[in-house]
Design brief:
This protein is an alpha+beta fold. It contains two helices and four strands, in the order βαβββα. A two-stranded antiparallel ribbon has the order 1-2. Strands 3-4 form a two-stranded antiparallel ribbon. Strand 3 and strand 4 form a beta hairpin. The longest helix is centred in the last third of the chain and has 28 residues. The radius of gyration is 19 Å and the shape is elongated. The chain starts with 20 loop residues before the first strand and ends with a helix. The relative contact order is 0.15. The chain binds zinc ion.
Amino acid sequence: MVRICIVCRVSSKDNIENVSFHLFTKNEIKRHKWCDALGISRATPNQSVCSIHFSPGSYNFSNSRKMLKPFAVPSLCLKKKRIYNTCRIGDFTSFDFGTPKRSSKNLIVGKNIVQNLRRKKQKFKSKK
Ligand SMILES: [Zn+2]
């Protein structure tokens, strides 16, 4: 099964070395802690976060296997680069709409992108 990190959209198909994927647990308290740390309102147990977001101290090493500690919470690389101007709406992730504040900000950015594209299209048409 392909896993995609809900924070940075890295996929297990990308085969990045040393990146593993951790599923949200069914344990509600722990899942809430992860959601809080990630700034999202909710997640389902089949969504995952990649190991990029866990500090080295979050792991136990046993028999050369990296095991996430039971109470580890994602803490790294959580702030995405802000998008002010882009031509690719696909740059948005669900993280950008995780809170009402973030959503409204990014909706404005999205609207601007669409307006810019329309303007470009009109320019293109008028040149013909
Ligand atoms: Zn990630």
